[in-house]
Design a protein that fits this description.
The structure is a homodimer. By secondary structure, chain A is α/β, with parallel strands linked by helices. Helices cover 31% and strands 23% of the residues of chain A.
Chain lengths: 338, 338
């Protein structure tokens, strides 16, 4: 089996470090990893694969030496500038930013959902938004069987999705509560400790946030159905890691509840965790550290003709970002090896 | 003006103490307050209205001395046993438990929504569930104008709704996180610090919790429309006080978004707080300590014919319990004075 050269761009951020952890677990056929970051973080030493790696400064010649795959998690600006440069040198970029997701030449991929889109790439494959990934893993098997008409998303999103500074705002808020000290917010416009902020990413003119618009647009693109009716309210909650989602779904087809649960139980990447009599349901504390999407509270919604309520929880840094991107890399290599 | 004798039953609990605080603020025409609690709390001294009150033990003769109004917040068992006794003695019970809410002879009242139901009482008036109260304050004016067809509720509920022990679970969880100590859960089946529990009150056979069923049943009863299509997912979040709610509403009538916002702005008990361009939206930190229901993130939902998304936040112990009950008492006295 061929071995591949892989670049990790944005290796020092919260998602970047989880990329490294997931890569260590997965054992891809890689001959060499090179870690890149902005000039600010270049020169840092990172422990990875049992060795010490020095982070290289990302510049327009970074990809001249020939990479097969580059995993980008360095923000939209970096992806906008450097992903096309990498692609032009023959490297396939798997990009975790929102920069290329809705571009028509860029496949937007969740490996359990639309792996067939991977090989349509023209040098860039986009990793979807964290809140979309976990939703579509649960919704895809239901859409295949029952034909989704409409989705109402309400999210409960962890601070880790806002990076290290978001994490610090919750940590410092907890410390201030316990110790009676003051602190300054690093990331959020208001305290997140003991509070819910109905505000993720920036507001658009129509009153929706970009996060809400991403869930709408990306769900349609990944499920290949622009006619899907979708709305979303995305909310930051005082949870360190793992997003929870209350999802109300209306289908065109009738369903039997036991069959629907069986569909979820057998779906790739899904763990059905639904035994209310024994207080078994998905929670952030359960999903954190895992790559599966946990689904529970599956109930018939009698307020619409053929509708169901779901509670969907996943680790937003792993399945919502790093693990999904590495899974795309695995699939890509598997296609190359065919 | 006549002065009334008022009993406060369950004065020592979290909601009971807020009852006392709200009564101090409201200055009702009361000749005498008597505070009652179970034998466990009887004898306690409480500071109230500038004096020290000794809490009396509640028993079947407690109402023999003649009360005009009794504010009950002592749990369903106490209300089941003692509210009929009080009512039989000519006292009007305003009951904060779920015990009598769906009883056909018991009005379920939110003063801004259905004050006309108060005088239909036969001795007991029920205070709705906290999560329902704030929802219907926002929905009533919209229902009057646009005729609600369907409601999808997803809630973000504070631990104070689970009483002192619920509060302690979050407090102890925060302390354990900061200090690295261990703690034992007092109330919830799982840690609530940095976690969301899709589980409030007990589970029914159909997979819904009683809390979810309450929101469905009570919304219909208060809005006088059993044909309303409603579903709910109720979730406990790590917030000390004030519930937030993501509410998706479909109307039979068309609406204009500016007009709909004006309807909310002019609605009794509602504060429209909706200026996303300036990061103005309702949050638990804003509503706590106030009696108003804060509504924001008002957006057209294009996924259904005439639908809107709302974000509704209120103090669940004040408007969701104590203040609403005291407002019922105020209205009751006003009817008597007519």
């Amino acid at each position: 089996m061929k071995k591949y050269r892989v670049a990790v761009v944005g290796a020092t951020g919260m998602v970047g470090r989880t990329f490294l952890k997931v890569l260590e677990e997965k054992n891809l056929p890689v001959s060499e990893y090179v870690l890149f970051a902005s000039s600010r973080s270049a020169g840092k030493k990172l422990s990875f694969m049992g060795s010490e790696y020095t982070v290289q400064e990302l510049n327009k010649h970074s990809f001249d030496s020939g990479f097969d795959i580059a995993l980008f998690s360095a923000g939209g600006g970096t992806s906008k500038e450097f992903a096309p440069i990498a692609a032009e040198k023959g490297c396939v970029v798997i990009d975790n930013s929102s920069q290329w997701r809705m571009h028509e030449d860029v496949p937007l991929v969740v490996p359990e959902v639309n792996p067939e889109d991977i090989m349509k790439h023209k040098g860039i494959i986009a990793n979807p938004n964290c809140s979309t990934i976990q939703a579509v893993v649960a919704l895809k098997p239901l859409n295949d069987k029952y034909n989704i008409k409409r989705i109402v998303y309400s999210t409960y999103q962890a601070v880790s999705g806002a990076g290290v500074k978001g994490y610090q705002d919750l940590e410092n808020g907890a410390k201030a509560f316990v110790n009676g000290t003051d602190y300054e917010l690093q990331k959020f416009p208001y305290p997140i400790f003991s509070n819910c902020l109905p505000h993720i990413d920036v507001f658009q003119d129509d009153g929706y946030t970009k996060e809400e618009q991403k869930m709408i647009d990306e769900t349609r693109k990944i499920l290949h159905d622009d006619s899907l009716l979708i709305t979303a309210t995305t909310v930051r909650v005082p949870v360190f890691n793992s997003h929870s989602e209350s999802i109300n779904v209306e289908f065109y087809n009738d369903y039997d509840l036991d069959n629907l649960k069986a569909v979820l139980k057998n779906a790739p990447g899904v763990v059905l965790m639904d035994d209310p009599a024994h207080e078994v349901y998905p929670m952030a504390t359960i999903s954190t550290g895992h790559d599966e999407v946990y689904v529970g509270r599956v109930r018939r919604d009698t307020s619409a003709e053929s509708a169901v309520n779901l509670w969907v929880v996943a680790d937003n840094i792993r399945k919502g970002a790093a693990s999904n991107a590495v899974q795309i890399a695995e699939k890509l290599i598997a296609y190359w090896e065919k």
